[in-house]
Amino acid sequence: MAKSKKKKIEADPLDRDMSFLLKEKGKWVRLNELFQMQKKNKTITLRVSDDLLNEVKKIAKDEDMDYQKLIRNIIIEYVAKKAS
User: Fold this and answer.
1) Which of 5, 24, 43, 56 has its CA 20 to 30 A from that of 37?
2) Which residues of the chain have pLDDT under 50?
């Protein structure tokens, strides 16, 4: 009898312990907070115009933060919005 190949089923992200998302009893972490808490272990290269980067740096300076963190926050905010 031939062995049947089992289809690889992707794990349901909700089918696991998600207690790490609890800040306090009954209070869940927002999606954007979850992304901020995760280890930053990937580097990306992004080409933008000098003018755009200068504007981002100005905004970051006004917000008293690094421009790379501002860009990361913008990406997180967009992803969290699309995911909800």
Assistant:
1) 56
2) none
